[in-house]
Amino acid sequence: NQWTREARYRPLSDIAPEVYQTMKEEVRNSPWRFSYHIQPPTGLLNDPNGFVYHDGTYHLFYQWFPLGPVHGLKYWYHMTSKDLVHWFDEGAALIPNDDADSHGAYSGSGFIKDDAVHIMYTGNKRDADWVRHPSQIVGHLRSDGRIDKHLPPAIPNVPAGYTEHFRDPKVFQEASGTWYCIIGAQCDDLTGCTVLYQSEDAETWTFLGELKTQYPDFGYMWECPDYFELDDKGILLFSPQGIEPDGDAYQNIFQSGYMIGEKLALPELTYQHHAFSELDFGFDFYAPQTTQAADGRRILVGWMGLPDISYPSDMYNWAHALTLPRELTLQEGRLKQLPIRELDLLRKRTIHAQSTEINQAMTIAQAETFEIELSNLALQTTQFEIHVRAADQEATVLTYDATTQRFTLDRSRSGAEVPAVDYGTTRTVQLEQPLHQLRLFVDRSSIEIFLNDGEAVASTRIFPKSTSQDITLIGDLTADISIYEL
Ligand code: FRU
């Protein structure tokens, strides 16, 4: 294997510019490159980081290993946008070239202080014996697009009682002005949890302790926590590792989800909350992060990928993308997730827009990158299917069964190569309401499914031939159907 430890920790600055240019061109010519998702120019993308709005601009960074489709020396890659849809490539902003982050600038969050974008992230450092020493580092974005690190680290050590798995600070501010950060951790007894720190200036932090939840034993590590408030409720997101499959739930290698509760009582660290639910029933979703939009909406972006899984694009030297941004709202005690309304800006051409009657089966259009919405769905058969990116032997198949209200996504025939088959090739969600509305966003190598105005969402990578473009409905039904080329 070419990915020796040396190769994984080689900095981008070691590579001659013309060699890197060739890598970029090879990636650009790869099949399955996205048309409207954030993807790495080369190498591997993972978690969204530092998502924040400031002065007319959204900033969204991502975890990036430049040199190949593996996890190695991580940088923060910087994207900016005025509308959350069209993104401008700002290049690498956070470079892991200090002692405290010598083995990677790991995940973290953004916040606005003194009218400037600030971040807090985990410096990943390993010593000569390969023992990990995480620290939490504050920085700010300079006008030249680089992050200035405020060294030494704001939180130089792991507090007593926790292991070296201590990372991913998410900073938030109380109305009173006090700053907090929540960090993903593993307790000495090898269970996952989160801890909180408090600060008056977001530079000097005081350890408060562990958040008291009703999940003292729920996986071995909680990565990428996020805390925010919506309609007077306190919502905690995190990505627990080590949860066993349970019915339809927890089918992927790692999960991410949320709990809704009362607002965190700080600094007492109590949290009255309901049960954990997964955010997404697709195959490829992890480590989401939220921010507040200019108009107050809560927006979430996730990593459309998972750790420790190989993907067909690996052979072309790149991996993964971010999901589309979603708006989160609370309805009847549940989190609803809708594609942000700005995504309408992606529509290039209307392919189909009419009330349509389907008898048995009908190929209604052909497209590679598109959005489709079905509303006012009336079914005459108990089951119906939608096939997208279909041709010959290939199809990504969505099935709804009206008797059970179960909706299934099957990617077993999505293309010649299907990732993570050891984790199965179907995912199913049990809907609370009969299916009445469905919206799909399909890109060259992904599908994002939104059911019943945000009741359930699935994000999934698929690797079809570019010529597989049939959109086919099977069953007896009528619906208002709109299809837009994106
Ligand atoms: C989650 C994660 C984080 C870590 C980062 C490293 O995918 O493992 O916990 O900070 O990725 O890239």
Number of domains: 2
Ends distance: 39 Å
What class do helices, strands and sheet pairing give?
Answer: mainly beta
Q: Tell me the name of the CATH class of the largest domain.
A: Mainly Beta
Question: Helical element count?
Answer: 2
Biggest β-sheet, characterized?
6 strands, antiparallel
Second CATH tier, the architecture of the largest domain: 5 Propeller
List low-pLDDT spans: none
Number of strands: 33
Helix content: under 10%
Largest sheet strand order:
22-33-24-29-30-31
Using the alpha-carbon principal axes, give the shape: globular
Q: Work out the radius of gyration.
A: 22 Å
Main location: cytoplasm
Pfam families: Glyco_hydro_32C, Glyco_hydro_32N
GO molecular function: beta-fructofuranosidase activity
Organism: Exiguobacterium oxidotolerans
Describe the structure.
InterPro entries: ConA-like_dom_sf (IPR013320), GH32_Enzymes (IPR051214), Glyco_hydro_32 (IPR001362), Glyco_hydro_32_AS (IPR018053), Glyco_hydro_32_C (IPR013189), Glyco_hydro_32_N (IPR013148), Glyco_hydro_beta-prop_sf (IPR023296), Suc6P_hydrolase (IPR006232). The protein folds into two domains: 5-341, Tachylectin-2, Chain A; 347-485, Exo-inulinase, domain 1 (Jelly Rolls), CATH 2.60.120.560. 3% of the residues lie in helices and 50% in strands. It has two helices and 33 strands. The strands form seven sheets. A six-stranded antiparallel beta sheet has the order 22-33-24-29-30-31, with no helix packed on it. It is globular and about 65 Å long. It starts with a helix and ends with a strand. The mean pLDDT is 97. Residues 46-47, 63, 74, 106-107, 122, 167-168, 223-224, 286-287, 307 line the site of beta-D-fructofuranose (FRU).
